[in-house]
Structures are given as structure tokens and as C-alpha cells.
Amino acid sequence: MSADLSSALLVAVLALPVLGALAVALLPAARDRQARVLATVIAALTLVVAVPLRWGTAESGWFGDGPPVAGPWALLDLPWVPALDLRFQLGVDSISYPLVVLTSLLTLLCCGYTIWRVPPGGPGRLLSALLLVIEFGILGTFLAFDLVLFFVFFEVVLLPMYAVIAVWGGTHYGPDSAEREPQRAAARKFALYTLFGSVLLLVGVLVLVTAAGTSSMIGFPRLDRGTQVFAFTLLLVAFAVKSPLWPLHTWLPDAHTQAPTVGSVILAGVLLKMGTYGLVRVGLGAAPQGAEVLSGALGVLAVAAILIGSLVCLAQTELKRLIAYSSVGHMGFVLLGIATMTATGIQAALLGNIAHGVITGLLFFLAGAVKDRAHTGSLDELGGLRENAPRLAGLLGFAAIASLGLPGLAGFWGEAFAVVASVQRGGGLWTTLGALAAFGGALTAAYLLRLLRRVTHGPASPAVSLLVPSWSVAGALSAAVTASQPGSGAGSDSGAEKPAVAGLPERLVPGWPTAAELLAWSPLVILALLLGVWPALVLSGTDAPINDLLEMVRP
Fold it and tell me: Helix, strand, or coil here: 479?
């Protein structure tokens, strides 16, 4: 592929979402559905443009089977702020490419999902437009090869995600503004934590740029050890907020619990990856010796996140909140891989990033489907899903098993090799951390199996009994009898409005997935299987850039 075509693709990947968001937002309210369709088309075009970036250079090959390439496959380098010697540098390599494709795919699935299902709270076209703006910010973060430009894109995501949670989140949509306070409080907490991290990130970036005399991450000069330690400390805390790393994770469960389904999918699927990607690209790339000094502390905190996240999940009684806390544990494995400062560990982190995005994105789609049907996410009010919604229960079981790291599915490789890398690092500390992380993996299996037992097994709860596997006469009569029994209405811990009692069709809820849901979920199911048997799909070509990063650790 020519350099001009590669540069054009880089520009198109960023231009399509931002221009599409503007076009969608400007459409009149009467054309709300057409606006959501347009947003889906724009997201599809973005994915179509993003995939060919793999052909950035002839040497890279489609699956990285060409000669090793350490630098970007494609690079756009233009003057940005000449007076400050800042450049508009965009590029893609084997570290960022899988995240670019994952971001484009999840945005497409979420925009397509909004065509048929828009949470109350605001116009659907504005929700779709915000999803495109979020995609623009996340893609820019993964493509930026300039430190200042990286920071700018990193911040673009804040306000749109705040609006998605505050406006379309929660389950209370009454005229009283107090009913919307839970999602607004969660959105404020998300914004305050993110702003705290952003301040530290800005200071860290300024320290690096001032000391190096350049903001370009390509060929970044080696700084003195003290500067690197100071800068990496700032970057570590900043990216720990976004990752999230214990104890800076407390914004995540609230945000996920209150966010709409599409917001949770984007938040867990790719937004958290901005933190772990930043640690690799900026932390290791600009301050590798600082990363080496603080690697032990990062490893300890990562294992603490694995154990604490898993133990909290064992005590959780709310579906989305449990999945949110599981992200703390899963991302702990990713951070442990980075902390080992080994090629195996960083590759495990890169694969764990993608696997978590695919599997947790699917889990939040499924959790949203369960809550939409049963009008509750409380595990105490769910049960018997496999009897009344067997297909939905089967998909939930598949996603949970993939999340617990069953060999042959996507969740296995990243977590297993993070433990292997920790043991290979050697020494009492790292061997102990590897053993504790392995124990955390066992706890992960325990809480996910507990989740399946509570939700899919046992007799159908009153909330689930309104779900019917078919519109047969027998199924309708059975649900009608259950609905007519005193105190058998679908309970909810959220106070959400239930379907009206009058009118049987309004009481029955189809238990099987709709066509729209299957379209949104199927790519994630396929990827969870594909990555489980073919991890080289993500890891191909990563040897050269990872070795380049680790080479700078040596004094």
C-alpha cells in the first residue's frame, strides 16, 4: 500500500465518526430513526476503512507473516502547532491495530443496537451521535504518535460518556428530577475520577515533553532515570484511574450499573483499554526505566485488583454490578502482564485487552437483555432463565465460561500467560504474585458459576416467569396464570415501571433473542471462539515493537 493511501485511511478513520456525528445530530427530531440508521452506516464505513490499515506496509503482511516491523505500518506526520514544535502524528502498528478494529466493531454493534432499542431519557439520534464522538476520541487515542495529541484525544471521551450515563442511564424516568439522581451521581463520579487522572496525565506529558524537547513518540530520546521515575509515577496513577486499578476503581461499578446497555459495552469494551494501552505506548515507550523501577508496585496492585475484584463479585447481588467488578479483576491480569516487563507478559496484556473487550461487551449486552425482559438485575429476583428463555440462558452461559478462562475460548490466553510471565520473571515477589493471580483465576470461576446457578438454574422466579420461550397457547396460558397470582409481578430493585396488568400480550415477554440482538451478539460470540483457538490473530507482528520497548529498559 502506498504511503499516500495509508495516510488517507488514517484520516478517514477519524474523519468519518466526527463528521458522521455532526450530520446525525443535525437531523430533525422527526427523522430520529433515520438518524440512527445513518449513524450505523457511518460506523460500518469506519470499520471498513479501519481493517485495511493492516496493509500499511508491504512488509507487515496480512497476519504479520512478513519481516518484523518495529515502527508504524502507516504514518501521517503534519505540522500542527509550529510555534511549539507540535506535530499531528497519526500511526498504527501491531500494538494498536487490534484495538482500532475492536473499537470500530463495538461502535458499529452499539449503533446498530440503537436502531431497535433506545433507552428513554433523550432522543436516539443524539445517543448515536455521542457514540460516534466517543469512537472518534478512542480511535484518536490509539492512533496518536504525539504525546500532546494523545492527551487531547484522551480527553475527548470524557464529556460524551458523561452525557450517555447521565441522560440515558438508570432506570428511573419520571417527571421528578430526583428520580434521575442515581445516574447523574454515577456520571459525576466518573467525570471527577477521570478529571483527576487527566490532571496527572497532563503534568506527566509536560514533564516528558519538556525534558525531551520533543512530543513525538517515534524515536523518543532516553531521559535520565530520575525524570523517568517521576514521569512514570504520574502516568501510572493517571492510567490506573482509567484501567481501572485498585484502589482507584470505585467509579466503575456505579458507572456500569447506571449506564445504558450500549454505554456499558463501550465503557468496558474499549474505554478501559485506553489506560492499559497508555501504559504500554506512553509509559514504556517514553519512561521505560521508570516503569522498571515501579514494576513491583504495579504488580502488587494488579494482583490486589484480581483478588479484591473476585471476592467482591462473590458477594454481589446485582447482575451488571457483578460484571463491572469482574472487569476490575480481569484488567488486573492485563496490568500484571505489563508489570512483568517481559515480552510474554506484554503479549498476554495485549491479548487480554482484546479478549476482555469481546467477552465483557457480550456479557453487558446479555445483562441488558435480561434486565429489559425481567425488569430487574437483582440476582435474588432472577432464576430459572434456562426454562423460560433457553437461548438467552445458553448465550449467557457461553459468555460466562469464556470470561472465566476456559481453554479454547478467548479469555484463557491472556490470563494464563500473565501468570506464566510473572513466574518466569523469577524471584520470590513475582513467583508469589503469579501464585496469587492463579488463585484469583479460581475465584473468577467460582463467582461466574455462582452467577449462572443463580440466574439460569432453579425454578423460575416471578420476574422470569413472564418470559415465554414461544408464543404457543400453552406458554401464553402458563404465563397468564403466573401473572394473575397475587404478589407474582416482576419485582425490581430499581422501581422501574412494569408492563400493565391488563392485556395479556403486554404481560408476556419473548424469551428468545430478537433479530437485532442476534446481529449485535453474533460477531462477539464468533470472536470469542476464534481468539480462543487462534491467538495469533492479535499477537502476529508484536514481537518487534515489544522488543523495541523492552530494549530501552536496559541502561
Answer: helix
C-alpha cell at 487: 404478589
- Check residue 492 and give its pLDDT: 34
Low-confidence residues of the chain: pLDDT under 70: 1-3, 56-70, 171-180, 463-512, 553-555
Give the span between the Cα atoms of 542 and 96, in whole angstroms. Answer: 10
- Predicted local distance difference test score (pLDDT) of residue 78: 86
Locate all alpha helices (DSSP H) within 375-503, ordered by sequence.
385-388, 390-403, 411-425, 428-456, 462-465, 473-484
d(CA 531, CA 405): 12
Q: Which residue has the cell 454493534?
A: 109
Would you state the pLDDT for residue 298? 92
Nearest in space to 239 (alpha carbons), one of 310, 325, 324, 151: 151
Altogether, the residues listed in the chain come to a count of: 555
**Alpha carbon separation from 76 to 5, 79, 86, 121 (Å, rounded):** 10, 10, 13, 40
Pairing of strands 467-468, 86-92: unpaired
For cell 490509539, name the residue.
142
Question: In this structure, which long-range contacts are made by residues 79-84, counting pairs with CB atoms below 8 Å and at least 24 apart in sequence?
Answer: 80/146, 80/149
Q: Which residues contact 22 (CB under 8 A, 6 or more apart)?
A: 129
Q: pLDDT at position 63, please?
A: 45
pTM score above 0.85: yes
Write down the pLDDT at residue 214.
86
